[in-house]
Design brief:
The structure holds 3 protein chains of 3 kinds.
Chain A: H1 2-18, H2 25-46, E1 54-62, E2 67-73, H3 77-94, H4 102-120, H5 124-133, H6 135-145, H7 150-179, H8 191-204, H9 213-220, H10 223-245, H11 251-274, H12 279-300, H13 303-334, H14 339-342, H15 346-349, H16 351-364, H17 371-385, H18 392-420, H19 436-454, H20 457-463
Antiparallel strand pairs in A: 1-2
Helix pairs in contact in A: 1-2, 1-4, 2-3, 2-4, 3-4, 3-10, 3-13, 3-19, 4-5, 4-6, 4-10, 5-7, 6-7, 7-8, 7-9, 8-10, 9-10, 9-12, 10-12, 10-13, 11-12, 11-18, 12-13, 12-17, 12-18, 13-16, 13-17, 13-19, 16-18, 17-18, 17-19
Chain B: H1 7-29, H2 35-55, H3 60-79, H4 91-110, H5 114-132, H6 139-170, H7 175-182, H8 189-207, H9 215-222, H10 225-250, H11 255-278, H12 283-299, H13 312-339, H14 344-347, H15 350-353, H16 355-369, H17 375-390, H18 394-419, H19 436-455, H20 458-461
Helix pairs in contact in B: 1-2, 1-4, 2-3, 2-4, 3-4, 3-10, 3-13, 4-5, 4-10, 5-6, 5-10, 6-8, 6-9, 8-10, 8-11, 9-12, 10-12, 10-13, 11-12, 11-18, 12-13, 12-18, 13-16, 13-17, 13-19, 16-17, 16-18, 16-19, 17-18
Chain C: H1 2-26, E1 32-34, E2 54-56, H2 58-81, H3 88-107, H4 111-129, H5 136-167, H6 172-181, H7 186-200, H8 209-212, H9 218-227, H10 229-239, H11 241-244, H12 248-271, H13 275-295, H14 299-327, H15 343-357, H16 363-378, H17 387-416, H18 438-453, H19 462-484, H20 494-497, H21 504-529, H22 531-550, H23 555-576
Antiparallel strand pairs in C: 1-2
Helix pairs in contact in C: 1-2, 1-3, 2-3, 2-9, 2-14, 2-18, 3-4, 4-5, 5-7, 7-10, 7-12, 9-10, 9-14, 10-13, 10-14, 12-13, 12-17, 13-14, 13-16, 13-17, 14-15, 14-16, 14-18, 15-17, 15-18, 16-17, 16-19, 17-19
Classes of the chains: A mainly alpha, B mainly alpha, C mainly alpha.
EC number (chain B): 7.1.1.-
Membrane topology (chain B): Multi-pass membrane protein
Protein name (chain B): NADH-quinone oxidoreductase subunit N
Chain lengths: 472, 465, 577
């Protein structure tokens, strides 16, 4: 089932790229949406329960290296996979327009499918292959369809990521040598390998100070590119930390640094957000903060931490996806994402867009009852608990920084709402409210944000039996 | 001293050498110097050599290296058809020198005593130097050949010095004898160290390792593209094979002496090579520097030559590297013939407007970079890092990781250049010779092989040594 | 019109549902525990979830009824007050959401549900205060309210986490049960709760958001001040009282906060020139009184006063809205002499001011009396609070009573008596000043009746009752006498008029600090953090160029490099081996 779920978007994506001259825009987008819908449905159906691995596929691959074609989803990876398929589907729906390039749809499919591959791999080498597979398509998404200095931003993104992944590769090999196999459950990275792997994923996550690629890439990318980068690509980093670093016996080597830099990143990014004028850059920086909570949670190495990391990642996926779609709508209308140039009073000019934006904004600041909150509060709890490997001063330093970060987050969100939604309206010719496709995409995400916010058990129940030994 | 003739080893080399002579004679007896006149006998001879090699039913690293050498030569010979009707290149001499060097490469790999090794190295080097300078009326080529020659002479001299020291210390030049003699505690350690290091220098030179790399960019850039391909693939494979056999068979007792040297050279080589490649604006220059870096990657697992993957890892790596490099060089040779330039700026958008050459080039670059979807490149990167880790050279593994990243920086630059949007229609030669199709077919067959290997890496990993 | 009443209908349905549910509980002694979902402390705290468990006891039932009652009245009132506003729909719906959130806070036993309601109230107040978002003042006030309360709410978040970790459950009842077996971490929990309460109930030093929230529509101010937002703070302090009742540190801190705030709020209320703002400060002062009751160990007295205050403060604010509608401003200088033109407003507000001043027989008198009595009982020192602290608290409370009576009278006089300062050029009120429509006046009457009705059955403590009456009457009398003698009642020392400059840290320093820090961060991000990738890039490029230049085709140079290399390799080989 998983093989089909991966093959369909890959195949449709590659076909769309190859046949880009012959496919009408709308047909391409609908084909992409159909493919992602199939994938989403298959991933939803594959679930067998939190215990063990669902939908396992196991075939020999590279015998001499001890690598096998092992696919399957666990309690940790399934939420990531569902979220990715969901976001991929929405990205394709978003592209249902006359001016869409079919190749862009194809690349979106390939990127989504690669990310799904990462989340479904039970073999480290296979995971790494999928991890890298998405990069070049993403480069094209940013460089060819982006705005501003997109080429440079895309190249920076690519170089940062491959720097990380090269270290990651060495780390994986060391882990495989020490553990005797490339299967995820066998990998035993030693201290050096843990450092390397952490660095590799830290670039992707990203953790301050390895984040400087992110604002450029997110702000330059087209709307779907930003959404995929934020909602899916960053999760590759957190997922990697969860799968490789969190279970390792040597996490103690990196845990204090992860905790402090993660929490510091929350404050840092919130302050950076407060001074942004470009809405997409603001959202990009806010992502760093959200990932900071996840990193802090991972560093505690506790069941609560794992739950926090999974919930935080998934919630960030839907919330930030919604924000980027809203920012994309504004960009489509006004040709810019500069808040001063878009102008004030969107409440009056485009009411539904403004309301959606405000909802996403308050979700991003972690309002209880919306999705963003639970990941944060679980992270705080994990840090308060200290966990297995941190010392109390370190964990509580992280806790304090995280709380300060939440306060600052509120400040920049309120500022953004003041600058955009409120204020004396300055009507412009471009003012028009949500189109149907925008309403559908954003509506789906709003629903996800509210459902996850009001019924966190839906997701937590999946993750909770983790201690039963899904991933050691 | 008698040198025993082992026909299982010498057979392919002899066949190839005979082919070289036949090609020369045929070419000389033809009045119209066409490429096929000498090309066909050369091709036949290489095929016969392969048949001869496979007939022996041999296994092991030397066999694998011989196979790589012969297949590489075959590739070069066929792809060299791209140079048909290039009046500056005399086909008879070209094929003769190519086949001679190939024979030398075969002998280098099979040598079991140091004298044979040195002689064979010269048999490999001298025709290679001549090949570099063969293009008539090309002053740059001749200057390149000249630097290549002088550097080669110096390194051979150093190797000979090492060999004589070794002989002086141990009294034997056969690998087996050296192996036993070096474990003798009476042998003065520091002298052995000096001797071993000096001996290895010659092979490192052929491999293009830093600090003996200076000839590589000059030679590759100054000569025909396919000659560069030959040097980067066949010659490099042969010298790596010789180095491996020498270290594994003759000098395991002196591991303490050459281990650190090889490790340091490997680390420096890959770093310098990659850094050099970063700012190259010409695809051939880029590949020249990258092949220096790749030599470093090949060298790295050599430090663990006595470990479980010490022999197989370099063989597998070099096989994939050679194939990818040959595909890239052959594609560039075609491009040079058709478009008259291999500058990156002129290659922009080639994967779109000339997919039959552009996409193989992309594939080759990805393979060399070790980047999916060219899984085989990634797998062989894993293959070479693994023995290094197993042998507890974690620092070297980290250096390799950093260099994988540096390599990605320029390989991906090449890839995105090829896949980007072209600016305007490129110049394409209106009437290419029909024989270019031979070269194109090698590119396609080579890249098809890469695709198959990427889909099923086990094919290579389980079957090569 | 019909659509406007539709929202009233929704609110009414909500109110009726709550009433059906809560009214039977009013007289009951036993606690009804409605378990819909499942909770249960088993071992470590479970992962958080929003379980719909509800708990009602008489105290909560009263507050629930107050909330929905005031909410319904506000909704009715708004049809007239704000009915022609283009954004009436969002306004009315947010009020409904506001009420639901308040019901969640009051009715639940699940701390997370409480938190969700708590924060949703914060959001709703943000939206409602900023309802007139075209005006910069409203935007700024809304943002400030949201920011201050939300930052304080982090205290509640942490308190919930600590409660969960300490007692293994996120159920209030469960935690109380566990606490009665083995109390732990009382000080930590209490201080964290106190932070949240101080923020939400606008106590010192986080009080400055409340007066700034005045640009919101007046009915909303009534809702926030009387029945929902700020009341939730005191309610929370009372609800979780048991968890920190053992900690003298917490109780003392709470008492100190309450003492400072009640006097400060009352003094600030005296000096205001704006009716609405004066009433806002009076809320701050009254909430402090309720908090004082909690601090001296009698949370019931606090919630009782909360109830009475909710009624009369809603009355006062809604009356203030009527006056504002009539004279077009909330400045006291534009009022005066409204007694005859607006009899309903005058009489109902008179009741309200009497309750505020604590005069018999209003509910305000009785509940304030209970609070004073509780403080007086605490002066014996064995109720958790040190005797000295309790004495100070009692004195401050009595002084506050005096000031409260005084400013209540001042506001009453300035609004309704005199010649009419805001009158037209001829010294008479304009023709357009008339009584408010029925939809607005009706709720006033209902609330005025409730102001008296709630005193039925309230306990009376003779000693404190007499004392406070004397003090209050003295306050009223002093002001009346001064007014009779022609005083403008404008005694306003500069520090008080400037509200002790306590807003300065929030409006200037923290803002400047944040802006400055964020600029620095952006600069650092670009110029410092980004140095290593850019530096690495340029370093690699430089080396690369250098390597290219080194390819000079100069054989001598190559040979030199080669020779040096050989020597170095030999050295490595010899030395390392």
């Amino acid at each position: 089932m998983i093989v089909v779920a991966l093959a369909v978007p890959f195949a449709v994506g590659v076909l769309l790229v190859l046949a880009r001259r012959f496919v009408p825009s709308r047909v391409a987008a609908w084909a992409g949406a159909a493919a992602m819908a199939v994938t989403l449905a298959l991933y939803a159906l594959v679930w067998e329960g939190s215990e063990g691995v669902s939908g396992r596929v196991d075939a020999p691959w590279i015998e001499p290296l001890g690598a096998r074609l092992q696919l399957g989803v666990t309690a940790v990876s399934w939420p990531f996979a569902l979220m990715t398929a969901f976001i991929g589907l929405l990205c394709c729906l978003w592209l249902v327009a006359d001016d869409t390039a079919p190749a862009l749809v194809g690349l979106v499919l390939v990127v989504s499918a690669s990310a799904l591959g990462v989340f479904s791999s039970l073999d480290a080498l296979l995971l790494f292959v999928f991890f890298e597979l998405a990069l070049i398509p993403m480069w094209f998404v940013i460089a060819l369809w982006g705005t501003g200095d997109a080429r440079r931003a895309a190249t920076r993104f690519l170089l940062f990521t491959v720097t990380g992944s090269a270290l990651l590769l060495v780390g994986i090999v060391i882990g495989a040598v020490r553990g005797g196999s490339l299967e995820l459950i066998d990998i035993r990275p030693d201290a050096v390998a843990v450092v390397l792997i952490t660095l590799g994923f830290a670039v992707k996550t990203p953790i301050v100070p390895l984040h400087t690629w992110l604002p450029d890439a997110h702000s330059a990318a087209p709307t779907v590119g930003s959404v995929l980068l934020a909602s899916v690509f960053l999760k590759l980093g957190t997922y990697g930390l969860l799968v490789f670093v969190e279970p390792s016996d040597h996490i103690g080597v990196v845990a204090p640094y992860l905790a402090v830099t993660g929490a510091f990143g929350i404050v840092w990014s919130a302050l950076a957000c407060y001074a942004q004028d470009d809405l997409k850059r603001l959202i990009a920086y806010s992502s760093i903060g959200h990932m900071g909570f996840v990193v802090l949670a991972v560093a505690t190495r506790s069941d609560v931490g794992v739950a926090a990391a999974v919930f935080g990642s998934v919630a960030h996926g839907v919330v930030t996806g919604l924000l980027f779609f809203a920012a994309g709508s504004m960009k489509d209308r006004y040709g810019t994402t500069s808040m001063t140039r878009i102008g004030r009073g969107l409440y009056a000019r485009t009411p539904w867009l403004a309301v959606t934006f405000v909802l996403a904004a308050v979700a991003t600041l972690g309002l209880p009852g919306l999705a963003g909150f639970w990941g944060e509060v679980l992270s705080l709890r994990a840090a308060y608990d200290v966990g297995e490997v941190l010392s109390r001063p370190v964990a509580w330093t992280g806790l304090g920084l995280a709380l300060l970060g939440i306060a600052l987050t509120t400040a920049y969100v309120v500022r953004a709402v003041r600058l955009l939604a409120q204020g004396e309206p300055v009507p412009s010719d471009a003012d028009r409210d949500l189109e149907v496709r925008e309403a559908v995409v954003m509506g789906a995400l709003v629903a996800a944000v509210v459902v996850l916010g009001l019924a966190p058990q839906l997701l937590l129940d999946v993750v909770q039996p983790l201690s039963a030994g899904v991933l050691r | 001293m008698t040198i025993p003739v082992d026909w299982t080893v010498a057979g392919p080399a002899t066949v190839v050498m005979i082919g070289a002579l036949v090609a020369l004679v045929v070419d000389a007896s033809y009045s119209r110097r066409t490429w096929l006149g000498s090309g066909l006998p050369a091709t036949a001879a290489v095929l016969a050599g392969i048949a001869e090699l496979l007939r022996e039913d041999a296994t092991g690293a030397p066999f694998a290296f011989s196979l790589v050498v012969l297949l590489g030569t075959l590739f070069v010979v066929v792809a060299s058809n791209v140079m048909n009707f290039e009046n500056a290149m005399p086909p008879g001499e070209y094929h003769f020198l190519l086949m001679s060097a190939s024979a030398g490469a075969l002998v280098v790999v099979s040598a079991r005593d140091v004298v044979t090794l040195v002689v064979a190295l010269e048999l490999l080097s001298l025709p290679s130097i001549a090949l570099v300078g063969l293009r008539q009326g090309d002053r740059a080529a001749i200057r390149s050949a000249w630097t290549f020659f002088l550097a080669s002479v110096v390194s051979t001299a150093i190797t000979l010095m090492g060999v004589s020291l070794l002989y002086g210390v141990t009294g034997t030049l056969e690998y087996a004898g050296l192996r036993e003699a070096l474990v003798d505690p009476d042998v003065p350690g520091s002298v052995v160290s000096v001797a071993v290091v000096l001996t290895v220098v010659g092979l490192l030179f052929k491999l293009g390792a830093v600090p003996f790399h200076a000839w590589v960019p000059d030679a590759y850039g100054g000569t025909s593209v396919m000659v560069a391909g030959f040097l980067s693939a066949v010659s490099k494979a042969a010298s790596l094979g010789a180095l491996l056999v020498l270290l594994a068979e003759a000098l395991p007792g002196a591991h303490d002496a050459w281990g650190p040297v090889v490790a340091v050279v490997a680390a420096v080589t890959m770093t310098i090579g990659n850094l050099g490649a970063l700012r190259q604006d010409d695809a051939v220059g880029l590949l020249a520097w990258s092949s220096i870096a790749q030599a470093g990657f090949m060298l790295a697992p050599v430090v663990a030559v006595s470990g479980p993957y010490g022999l197989s890892a370099p063989v597998q790596y070099v096989a994939v590297y050679a194939l990818a490099n040959l595909v890239a060089f052959a594609a560039l040779a075609v491009v040079l013939r058709l478009r008259g330039s291999t500058r990156l700026a002129d290659l922009r958008g080639m994967a779109r407007n000339d997919p039959w050459m552009g996409i193989p080039l992309v594939l080759a670059a990805l393979t060399l970079a070790g980047f999916p979807p060219a899984v085989i490149g990634l797998v062989t990167k894993v293959v070479v890092i693994r023995p290094v880790v197993l042998d507890d050279h974690v620092w070297l593994a980290v250096v390799m990781g950093v260099n994988v990243m540096l390599g990605l920086a320029y390989y991906l630059r090449l890839v995105v250049t090829l896949c980007g949007r072209a600016e305007g229609e490129p110049y394409v030669s209106p009437s290419p010779p029909i024989s270019v199709r031979f070269a194109k077919s090698t590119v396609l067959i080579g890249s098809a092989t890469l695709v198959v290997l990427s889909a099923w890496p086990d094919l290579l990993l389980s079957h090569l040594p | 019109m019909i659509r406007r009443w539709g929202y009233v209908g929704i609110t009414a349905v909500l109110a009726v549902v709550v009433a059906i549910w809560a009214v039977p509980e009013l007289g009951r002694d036993t606690v009804t525990f409605v378990t819909i979902g499942q909770t249960g402390p088993d071992g470590g705290p479970p992962l958080p979830s929003l379980s719909p468990d509800l708990l009602i006891y008489p105290g909560t039932a009263q507050i629930l009824l107050l909330a929905v009652g005031v909410g319904l009245l506000v909704q009715i009132y708004s049809t007239a007050y704000l009915g022609h506003h283009p954004r009436y729909r969002s306004y009315a719906l947010v009020i409904v959401l506001f009420l639901i959130a308040m019901i969640a806070v009051v009715g639940t036993t699940n701390l997370w549900v409480l938190l969700v309601g708590w924060e949703v109230m914060g959001l709703c107040s943000y939206l409602l205060i900023g309802h007139e978002w075209e005006s910069p003042v409203a935007r700024a006030g809304a943002a400030k309210a949201f920011l201050v309360t939300r930052i304080a709410d982090l205290g509640l978040v942490m308190a919930i986490i600590v409660i969960g970790e300490t007692y293994g459950t996120y159920d209030i009842v469960g935690a109380q049960v566990a606490q009665s077996e083995q109390p732990r971490h009382a000080t930590l929990i209490g201080l964290l709760v106190l932070v949240a309460v101080v923020g939400k109930s606008a106590q010192f030093p986080l009080h400055t958001w409340l007066p700034d929230a005045m640009p919101g529509p007046t009915p909303i101010t009534a809702l926030i001040h009387a029945a929902t937002m700020v009341a939730a703070g005191v309610y929370l302090a009372a609800r979780l009282f048991q968890l920190y009742a053992d900690s003298q540190v917490v109780l003392t801190a709470m008492a100190v906060v309450a003492a400072i705030t009640m006097l400060m709020g009352a003094l600030f209320a005296w000096v205001q020139t704006d009716l609405k703002r004066a009433l806002a400060w009076s809320t701050v002062s009254q909430l402090a009184l309720m908090l004082a009751a909690v601090a001296v160990g009698d949370p019931e007295a606090g919630t009782d006063h909360l109830l009475a205050h909710g009624v009369f403060k809603a009355l006062l604010f809604l009356g203030c809205g009527c006056v504002m509608l009539a004279v077009g401003s909330s400045a006291l200088s534009s009022m005066g002499g409204l007694r005859r033109r607006m009899p309903v407003t005058f009489w109902t507000m008179t009741a309200g001011f009497a309750a505020l001043a604590g005069l018999v027989p209003t509910a305000g008198f009785f509940t304030k009396d209970s609070v004073l009595h509780a403080i007086e009982r605490a002066t014996d020192g064995d109720r958790g609070l040190a005797a000295g602290t309790a004495w100070v608290l009692l004195v401050v409370a009595l002084v506050t009573t005096f000031v409260t009576a005084a400013y209540a009278t001042r506001l009453w006089v300035l609004t309704f008596f005199g010649a009419g300062h805001g009158a037209g050029p001829h010294g008479t009120l304009g023709q357009d000043v008339r009584e408010a429509p029925l939809a607005m006046a009706g709720p006033l009457v209902v609330l005025a009746v409730a102001t008296f009705a709630l005193s039925v059955g309230q306990p009376l403590h003779l000693g404190t009752g007499l004392l406070s009456t004397v003090i209050a009457v003295a306050g009223v009398a002093a002001v009346l006498v001064a007014a009779r003698r022609g005083s403008t009642l404008a005694w306003a020392p500069r520090p008080l008029a400037a509200e002790l400059w306590l807003d300065r840290p929030f409006s200037r320093w923290i803002l400047a600090l944040g802006t400055g820090a964020s600029r620095v961060v952006v600069e650092l991000d670009r110029e410092v953090v980004d140095v290593y990738p850019r530096g690495g890039e340029s370093l690699a490029a430089t080396i690369s160029r250098g390597l290219g230049l080194a390819q000079s085709r100069n054989v001598q140079r190559y040979a030199t490099v080669l020779a040096v290399g050989v020597v170095m390799l030999v050295v490595i080989g010899v030395v390392v081996s």
